[in-house]
Design goal:
CATH superfamily of the largest domain: Aminoglycoside phosphotransferase (APH), C-terminal lobe
Shape: globular
Helix content: 40-55%
CATH topology of the largest domain: Aminoglycoside 3'-phosphotransferase, Chain: A, domain 2
CATH class of the largest domain: Alpha Beta
Number of helices: 12
CATH architecture of the largest domain: Alpha-Beta Complex
Distance between the termini: 44 Å
Number of strands: 12
Mean pLDDT: 90
Length: 342
């Protein structure tokens, strides 16, 4: 494994799960769905040939992303005259209903010329499962990794995010600075255990980020993706698509942008020799987004620094990628320092 794919911890867990049927007491149906025979039987019982998803034509099951105890995304490929691929999302109890409401609400607002979102094929609440149409295109991560067509991709990505931020979806919950601070709190102790990070330095960056985050509440709230990173953006020509909309919420637009830019920082830390291309992508994204919506520089710095601190905590606990944590903490300090210059 090389390039940017190595950074996807959800995909890594998915790969390990493919070694055998998953046993997750919070996602009981996953054990059946993770095998071709089990998934075909489930389709027979639950879908009954809906939308041409015939059990006998099921050819392949892939576990794409997995977050133990929370959710799992599978890809089901069907053959036959209508060969197609759908995504099956398995949720812990009570989560599927909310996601179904969000996706149904979004679909009712569209379509749009610059944003595609997955349509619901089937919802099986008893199993905590939503079946979704595939959103065509290459991921923004893949485009950035190849370096070809990144400028156009950045514009399309920014257009899709700006469109999402313009929508009004009453089903979404609020997300405030206090919620963001609680995320920081959860990563602080993990970072303090990193062998190459003195606890005093971690604490200093933590307190600076905490002091910056409250500015986010001054930004007018928009409809956020709230887990926005390049894997979640799919590009098909000049149209962007957004997937994994499970965490949609009302909040400051800078949260989505800050998280997206922090992931570009992550890519740069991982592929230092190619870091220039990610800086160019940052400029292209901001230019395209700001052509239609206003961004607060102070709120964007705060959101980006908070995301970097969170990412540092995520990778600090990963044996193969723990080296990235100090670099991400360095970048968080740089972002915070930029806001203090005269």
């Amino acid at each position: 494994m090389s390039g940017l794919e190595a950074l996807s911890l959800g995909r890594e867990l998915a790969r390990s799960t493919e070694m055998g049927p998953a046993v997750d007491p919070t996602l009981p149906i996953l054990r059946a769905l993770s095998t071709a025979a089990g998934a075909a039987e489930w389709c027979r019982r639950r879908l009954d040939g809906r939308d041409g998803l015939l059990p006998d034509s099921l050819e392949k099951v892939e576990i794409l992303r997995y977050r133990p105890g929370r959710r799992c995304t599978l890809g089901l490929s069907f053959g036959g005259a209508r060969g197609r691929r759908v995504y099956v999302k398995v949720y812990r109890p009570g989560r599927a209903e909310r996601s179904a409401r969000i996706l149904s609400g979004l679909a009712a607002l569209g379509p749009w010329p610059d944003l595609r979102v997955p349509a619901i094929v089937a919802f099986v609440p008893d199993d905590g499962v939503i079946v979704l149409e595939e959103v065509a295109g290459r991921s923004f991560e893949e485009v950035l990794g190849s370096g070809a067509g990144a400028e156009n991709a950045a514009r399309a990505a920014a257009g899709a995010v700006a469109r999402l931020h313009s929508l009004c979806l009453l089903q979404a919950r609020p997300w405030t600075a206090d919620d963001e601070l609680s995320v920081l709190d959860g990563r602080r102790l993990v970072l303090m255990k990193h062998p190459d990070l003195p606890w005093g330095r971690v604490d200093a960056v933590y307190h600076r980020a905490r002091a910056a985050v409250p500015i986010l509440d001054a930004s007018p709230p928009v409809l956020l993706h709230r887990d926005l990173h390049p894997q979640q953006i799919l590009l098909d020509g000049e149209r962007g698509g957004l997937v994994d909309l499970d965490d949609v919420a009302w909040g400051p637009p800078e949260l989505d942008l800050g998280n997206l830019l922090a992931h570009l920082d992550l890519f740069g830390a991982h592929l230092a020799s190619d870091s220039g291309r990610f800086g160019e992508a940052e400029r292209d994204i901001l230019a395209a987004y700001e052509s239609s919506r206003i961004v607060s520089e102070g709120a964007l710095r705060a959101a980006r620094a908070a995301s970097l601190f969170r990412l540092a905590g995520v990778y600090a606990g990963h044996p193969g990628l723990a080296r990235l944590a100090p670099r991400l903490l360095d970048r968080a300090e740089q972002i915070l320092n930029a806001g203090e210059r005269p």
